[in-house]
Amino acid sequence: MTKDEFYSLVKRRQSTRKFDTERTIDREIINRILEAGRLSPSACNAQPWHFIVVDEPELKNKVADAASARLLGMNHFTKQAPVHIIVVEEKVNLSSGIGGIVKDKHFAFLDIGIAAAHICLAAEAEGLGSCILGWFAESKIKKLLNIPDNKRVVLDIVIGYPAQDLREKKRKPSDEVISYNSYK
Fold first, then answer.
1. Are 112 and 50 in contact (CB under 8 A)?
2. pLDDT digits (tens, 9 = 90+) for 9-60
3. Per-residue exposure over 105-132, b if at least 16 CB sit within 10 Å of its own CB, e if not
4. What are phi and psi of 15, to 5 degrees?
5. CA 52, 56, 62, 66 torsion-angle sign
6. Which of 34, 86, 97, 110 is the most buried (most CB within 10 A)?
């Protein structure tokens, strides 16, 4: 991949909220996408994640129900996506744990965010759309997927073939979010 292809990929990637309900995703593609997440960097190489692929239609619909709030209009599109990747937080290693305490940072969340970004960019490279969800009924998802009570479900990443065109990205101007050598 050239640098131009990479920046084009970054410009194309957006949160997809409308999926082609007729198309499924081959597990070989899902495995390549998950490999991008598995290989992502983490603080002190802690790799504090476990990815659960939910692609069985009935179970996927139950997970989608746990991720939506009809009254608030939140995540009502999730049943359209053929795949949900549930990201569970795992314990960090000793170095990352001590570093997190000393620096007052939850490195596992940062690491999971990096892995999620890798997963979404890999999905885009495969011609798929994705959306990272943080709004869901964690207890319902834990029950549906047999996740132990002492674990945290951090994200639900939905993936599928987009059924919408690219939207124009609305971003703050560079001079509002970037400065050099000092906070603006």
1. no
2. 999 999 999 999 999 999 999 999 999 999 999 999 999 999 999 999 999 9
3. eebbeebbebbbebbbbbbbbbebbbbb
4. -75, 115
5. positive
6. 86
Question: How many residues can be counted in the chain?
Answer: 184
Residue carrying the six token digits 């509002």: 176
Say which residues have a Cβ less than 8 Å from residue 172's Cβ, sequence separation at least 6. Answer: none
DSSP assignment of the chain equals --HHHHHHHHHH--B---B-TT----HHHHHHHHHHHHTS--GGG---EEEEEE-SHHHHHHHHHHT-BTTTTBSTTGGG-SEEEEEEE-PPPHHHHHHHHHHT--HHHHHHHHHHHHHHHHHHHTT-EEEEE--S-HHHHHHHHT--TTSEEEEEEEEE-B-SPPPPP----HHHH--SSS--
Q: What is the pLDDT of residue 125?
A: 97
